[in-house]
Amino acid sequence: MKKILLIHPHDKSTKFLKRIKNCLVNNSSNLIHYYNVKPNDNSHANCIKLIKSMPEDSLIIFMGHGTKDVLCGSKSDDYEMYEFTSDEAMRENQFYINYYKTEFFNESNFNVFEGKLFFCLACNSRDLSQKVIKDGAKAFIGFGNLPTSKEEFIQEKTNFPSKYLVAQMKSELNYILKKSLLIAIHNSYNFDQLLNLLHFFANQRIAHHLANRKKKKERFILADQLYFLKKNLKLVGDRHILITA
Fold this sequence. Notes:
With 245 residues, the protein is an alpha/beta fold. 41% of the residues lie in helices and 12% in strands. The protein contains 8 helices and 6 strands. It has helices at 18-27, 41-53, 87-92, 129-134, 150-155, 163-186, 191-212, 219-231, and strands at residues 4-9, 32-37, 59-63, 117-121, 139-142, 234-237. Helix 6 (163-186) packs antiparallel against helix 7 and helix 7 (191-212) packs antiparallel against helix 8. The radius of gyration is 18 Å and the shape is globular. The protein starts with a strand and ends in an 8-residue tail after the last strand. The model has no long low-confidence stretch (mean pLDDT 92).
């Protein structure tokens, strides 16, 4: 059987994605190695070594932040405090970390995925697809924008996003990813079939909110975001390569 490496850089804003990890590891522990990248350089370097050591055709699942150019690494929980903290205070506090790997993967090291299958759960990772394939990945699935915070919904032109909307978006993202990946892994599906599962469960949740949550005014915004999640998915490379075999 092929092995699967699940990479999750430490960042309190993506803590909710651990539900995906828990589901996959609890149901496929013999296949999946989970690596939580800690907020330090050694942990990032060890993660890259681990990717390189994975056998040909292994599936790499990345869960974290990204842009159209890079995938971000770990961020210490106190990072946002930096601009409000004096240098003297930081020197006196030996526990102050203030770490953020803003560029974990970029054009300089996309070749670590050479010969691998890459499922990239990160905002705008679809824009990295051609670069990653050019550097040797066999197949790649990437996403568009995935708002999961009040600030990100505001950037999406959503006025006064509610706590319910943010929490529900996180919940739906977990549901769609858990169901799709688990079914694809257990049934040795190929990348094209995995993409179809993502589409199916996104459609299922859109229908659920529109038909059964009529008292929630946010249902239309949520349905739109799930539609964009589905629409912006991008698969490049070998569509018929098996996730497990």
